[in-house]
Design a protein that fits this description.
40% helix; alpha/beta; 260 residues; binds zinc ion
């Protein structure tokens, strides 16, 4: 059985003391590929270095996270664009990018601008986008709709919206990233995913954040993707190995990963 963690921040300092062991724990449970969304200018180097150490397993994305859109956002974007132009083959996706109005609204306008610019990058080079949305779902759907010219594809990472929103995103050509939230007692996701096409679901941890049950309150890591997978298979009433196969194929397709 093989799984892909489609959204995990294994390059962060949370993993500095046990990164290698942590990756091995994930591999022991069949999680063999790790897709790494970028955050800002500073995170590019540790992210890229990690991918160089695990070229068959770790795959880099490049983008500016919406909560990192601050007064220097234009400098940050031009640094990232430069990276992209210098290494067009290196990055599997533009991410993570998006809108986050939960923490701070003061750069809302700049968040929209940064998002639109990065949508353009993705379309220019035919790469998918990994999208982060918090307290801005309707705005995001309308941005995707405006940007969609047939070339935009991607994932709404850590999806927690309504059934209607899920269907709209799927209609717009997107996949939904299912993470640890689905294991939470109060989550409405279990009822929603039952009504969605499994061909549009991919698995993620968002490690070190949002650990699934029974690891809540602890540091999340990619090995815990397994708990989310078990839960999703039970909800969809399919065998775990079938879920592994389909979600792995979905992720390979969306991110155009090398076949091996
Ligand atoms: Zn993330």
């Amino acid at each position: 059985m093989q799984f892909i963690d489609t959204h995990t921040h294994l390059y962060l300092e949370d993993f500095d003391h046990d990164r290698h062991e942590m990756i091995n724990r994930a591999m022991d449970r069949g999680i063999t590929r790790f897709l790494l969304p970028n955050i800002d200018q500073i995170s590019v180097e540790p992210l890229v270095n990690l991918c160089k150490n695990y070229p068959a397993n770790c795959f880099p994305m490049l983008g500016l996270h919406p909560t990192s859109v601050k007064e220097d956002w234009q400098t940050q974007l031009s640094y990232l664009k430069n990276q992209l132009d210098n290494h067009p083959e290196r990055y599997i996706a533009i991410g993570e990018i998006g809108l986050d109005f939960y923490w701070d609204m003061s750069y809302a306008k700049q968040q929209f601008e940064a998002l639109r610019m990065q949508f353009d990058w993705a379309k220019e080079i035919y790469k998918p986008v990994a999208i982060h949305t918090r307290e801005a779902f309707q705005e995001m759907l309308s941005e995707i709709e405006k940007a969609q010219n047939g070339k935009l594809k991607g994932v709404l990472h850590c999806f927690t919206g309504t059934l209607e929103e899920a269907k709209k995103a799927i209609d717009l050509g997107f996949y939904l990233g299912i993470g640890g939230v689905i294991t939470y007692k109060k989550s409405k996701l279990p009822e929603i995913v039952k009504h969605l096409p499994i061909e549009r679901l991919i698995l993620e941890t968002d490690a070190p954040f949002l650990p699934p049950v029974p690891y809540r309150g602890k540091r999340n890591e990619s090995a815990y993707l397994f708990e989310t997978a078990v839960k999703l298979a039970a909800i969809l009433e399919i065998e775990l190995d079938k879920l592994a196969k389909i979600t792995t194929q979905n992720a390979n397709e969306l991110f155009n990963l090398p076949t091996k």
